[in-house]
Amino acid sequence: MSKGKVTRDNILSKAFELASENGLESLTIGELAKQCGMSKSGLFAHFNSKDNLQIAVLEYANLIFTQRVIAPAREQSSALRQEQKIRTLLDNWLGWNHSFQGSCMFLDAWKETNPEANPTQQALKKTIATWVEYLRIQVAKGVENGEFRQDLDPKQATFELYGLYLSAHLFYSIHGEHESYQHFWQGVERMMTSWK
What we know:
Oligomer: single chain
Organism: Vibrio coralliilyticus
InterPro entries: Homeodomain-like_sf, HTH_TetR, Tet_transcr_reg_TetR-rel_C_sf, TetR_C
Distance between the termini: 49 Å
GO molecular function: DNA binding
Protein name: Transcriptional regulator
CATH topology: Tetracycline Repressor, domain 2
Number of domains: 1
DNA-binding region: 28-47
């Protein structure tokens, strides 16, 4: 691995840590350079703009997300029924937020603006859309193999799963981990029972 690649990876690791704690918008070339012990111009040379830095951090976060949420379920997927694979994904997904100092970078970075007008929001939209589609495919596989009822709409089921996740995220900040997880899993149980 080249020195430039090692330096860039170290920068992204630190940027990911900072963005997890303070939000993606808080990242600046100057503050990140200070945290990495680099000059502003040295750090800037790796990204050339704040947008490029934020997009690179989102790509890095997506890689970490894939390693921590999707890969463990994929590794055991041949031995698991589709319902159990989805439960594993949900458990990993719920734990993903709280394995850092802060919260879910993807949720925190989302803006109520037109994503087409902002390259960072375009990258974020793509990341979230990819994850939502992956979940939808998992539900569809359960329908195809007969685990879930044939008239189950995988897109609607995924919408409802994401709703539970968003609720758990909010409840975590208000009521703490235990109550948030309890309500999340009660919702998942009720939902998956209705899928059969």
